[in-house]
Amino acid sequence: MKLYSTNNKDLRVSFQEAVFNSMPLDKGLYMPLNIPQLEKEFLDHIEKYSLPEIAYQIASTLLKDEIPTADLKALVEDAVNFDAPLVKLDEDTFVLELFHGPSLAFKDFGARFMSRVMAYFLKDGELLLDVLVATSGDTGGAVALGFLGVPNTRVTILFPKGKVSEVQRLQLTTNGKNVRAIAIDGTFDDCQALVKQAFADEELKAKFRLTSANSINIARLIPQTFYYFNAYAQLKRKGFKEVVFSVPSGNFGNIGAGLLAYKMGLPVHQFIAATNANDTVPRFLESGIYETKPSVQTYANAMDVGAPSNWVRIMDLFNTDRKVIQELVKAYRFTDEETLAGIKEIFDKFNYIACPHTAIAYLATKAYAEKNPTDKGVKVFLSTAHACKFPEVFSAEMQSKIELPAQVETLKNKVELYSELGKDFEGFKEYLLMGDQ
Ligand SMILES: *Cc1c(COP(=O)(O)O)cnc(C)c1O
């Protein structure tokens, strides 16, 4: 697999380079030069395969020249060691639960795969790989747990003090080993700015092998295609053929992977991009004008993104043809009020507790169905996180009914360990230079 930059189609890098660089120097995004098709024979019988088998088939179609078969198989099986079940709500509505991994969010797929790919490419005796991550909540937990115990790597996570939920904080601060957490007295943007400054600092760059783990890394995108194929396999077993996927979207990495899966041959009838008030993409699909805005805070805070970083990739996949994208991807936006009403409706109608991001994807399936009453496609909305990560939005009755997964019970008995720093770069730099503490 060779990759180019969306800003320079003549650039060629290997998969390994793309993984460690994350982003080309020209600030474009890496894209595969050729998007291979899955074998027809495989797709025709996909219902016979398990999630790890499907994941391996996709990974090997893309990466067989990069990682030898046996190694790739072991890597995929280690990364995808949890399920992504499809839960039926009514005759033609299903929720695809992507939160059964260690951090209880879909980002586990990307983070676990990427960490193992990086570890695979690291050679013995090389300088420790230092992963710096800023998180508003979910990314940090997935990356921390993805890299936890992975040899020759160290993770430093910056989170805004007091601005992540309890479960999210525990996932960041109770790891020990090769994972360090820092509570920054500031906002997520302050955390992000510190990480960016570190990457630009000559002294730090000379001393450490710094890498980011953000959602634009191609090794995070690829494994997110796995669950789309697996959902299709589950639906095929139930006799469905036409699928409508509704995806709660922030940086558009999740739906970007769905569209990559489509390009690889996955039959999808319709994609729906569901956003909160941060509606840069819905506005673009309506008006043709792509105008980013500063993000606004919502209950679905993992989607509070005003400038979705993966959108360029989606444009690139479809040769920047807005008409084609408009046909394949319908977009809907919802306010906080509508989100709360959506959570309540899902609970009242289906006795199901959905996190705010998931509720937005549900609302989008309804909006789509209202506009397209003759569409017979089965509606599948993606659930990107477990409800227990966002307790503040639920009524007391719902809160009492949220079943805490085993992962959370264990967390509550662990010791929290983290440093506290201000938002000035000097303090953060000193922390990094001082080494283990
Ligand atoms: C990250 C995240 C999203 C948004 O996914 P993108 O790939 O950035 O569009 C949605 N929901 C949850 C719970 C998340 O953690």
UniProtKB/TrEMBL annotation:
Entry annotated with the keyword Hydrolase: no
InterPro entries hit by this protein: Ser/Thr_deHydtase_PyrdxlP-BS (IPR000634), Thr_synth_N (IPR029144), Thr_synth_N_sf (IPR037158), Thr_synthase-like (IPR004450), Threonine_Synthase (IPR051166), TrpB-like_PALP (IPR001926), TrpB-like_PALP_sf (IPR036052)
Record's catalysed reaction(s): O-phospho-L-homoserine + H2O = L-threonine + phosphate
Pfam families the UniProt entry points to: PALP (PF00291), Thr_synth_N (PF14821)
Record keywords, A-Z: Amino-acid biosynthesis, Lyase, Pyridoxal phosphate, Threonine biosynthesis
Pathway: Amino-acid biosynthesis; L-threonine biosynthesis; L-threonine from L-aspartate: step 5/5
SUPFAM superfamilies listed in its UniProt record: Tryptophan synthase beta subunit-like PLP-dependent enzymes
Keyword Membrane listed: no
Residue ranges annotated for the Tryptophan synthase beta chain-like PALP domain, each copy included: 94-377
Domain Threonine synthase N-terminal: start-end pairs: 4-79
Family: Belongs to the threonine synthase family.
Entry protein name: Threonine synthase
Organism of derivation: Pedobacter boryungensis
Gene (UniProt): thrC
